[in-house]
Please model this.
Amino acid sequence: MSQFTAQRQRRAMARISRYSMLARIGLLICALAFLATGALAQTDPVSLPARDAHQGLLIAANPYISANRYKEKFGKHTPYDGGILAIELFFRNDNDSPIRVNLKTMQLLVGAPGGSRQRLDPLSPEEVADRVLAKPKDPSPRIPIPRVGAPRKAHNKDWEEFAGTVRSAALATDLLPPHATTHGFVYFDIDRHYDWLRTSRFDVPDLAFMTGNQQALFFFQIDLAPAIP
Model:
């Protein structure tokens, strides 16, 4: 191979390398633009009617109450099929410090209008999948809401896919970063009593600033009635 030919090949390889780098940069820019568009399209928690705010933290609740809305979000199987309420939560932390929230202590107070209300604990994605895919024979709501879970079945592909969908949508972190909005779903088995939500309340009792003294925040209580059409 002559020296001239070798130089031509090196120049050609350099051009290919530059084009490859430009292509990667272009793909990166497109990806960042897509992510930015998604962030801009995110719901503004201030616009939601069911919310509570103090000490630089706003918590808003967006309950899903129609079958069509569940289908749009979850697809083939939905929490609605099992009489489960999905609430999309938004935490906007306007403080300079992160905040820790104890997800296990959040509760939904729900009951028939004029009657006493039950305190319900949130379900895990696995519990949601168990209740939905167990397909209870009697779909009519019961009073009071039963606390006994549906019997567990073998975890087949359908169960794994649905549990994964529920898990990916769920509120997955207990740390709220400063000057940021965190959101995700929590699930409650209300046994199809969606008509009770006008008198229900969502409580977030255990939050604290992640500072040296772990200063606690006041109790958050969110009436869901304003979010029910």
Q: What stands out?
A: The chain has two domains: 1-41, 47-227.
